[in-house]
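Explain this protein:
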Amino acid sequence: MPNIKNPFHSHTHDASLEFSCGMRKPIVLMSMGAQERSGHEYQVMTKKYIRPLVEHALCVPVLAPTCFGVDDLALYLSMVDGVYLTGAGSNIDPSLYGQENLTPEKTQDQDRDRFDLPLIYAALEMGLPLFGICRGMQELNVALGGDMHQKLYALPGMREHREDYNASVTQQYADVHMVKMVADTWFAKLMQQEEIAVNSLHGQGIKTLGKGLQALAHAEDGLIEAVHLPEHKQFTLGVQWHPEWQAAQNPFSIRMFEAFGDACRQAVVQKIRK
């Protein structure tokens, strides 16, 4: 792959930008997910996703319920400087990428599907920085016309990417395999080494890349583990693992969230200059 430069990674993280020129903190949109508890319907967001956005990206989260449709999507986007698509326990509806559902036992969240795909289209059109984790990366791929392996664990030559449901949370989120960076990319430069160890808590993965997406990292079995959109001028990154987990203890996670935060700060600066 040719050397792909990204302007949001040409400098080191600089939290002082936040306070220069009377600049406010960036605001980042996070879409919530459905969860049923004791007969009540909830919209939820796990704290582990919010913490590194606040503590390392130095951004202010705005949480959007996905259960009321997209009528107010433009209003949400007018208020924010970036979009952060998190993981979740649910799978994307396979009909959105032309497949029958091979995992009916798994939870779906079609309200989130119907909210996040238009959100991705609009965010990319507006030039907003976009960071997707696990389901969020898969949503980016599906939104751009890609499809998914619904059962990685049933494919010959693929490792087991799912967590052990009987293990403790700490064990589930432990590093279990390596991912190798695509050489001569801004992401390889950001990570500062050719391979890093990551956790793995997913049964599905990218089969065919969506239009414009390029891989930034692969697992040992060849699975695409990180992607971006090199033809888009703004920061775009999707990763299949969970860098939000105990991010403060992981230098690679910190670099990702700092880079996203810096991109969102640049979005604020651009708004101020208009």
Q: What stands out?
A: The first strand starts at residue 27 and ends at 31. The first helix runs from residue 47 to 55. The chain has one domain: 7-273.
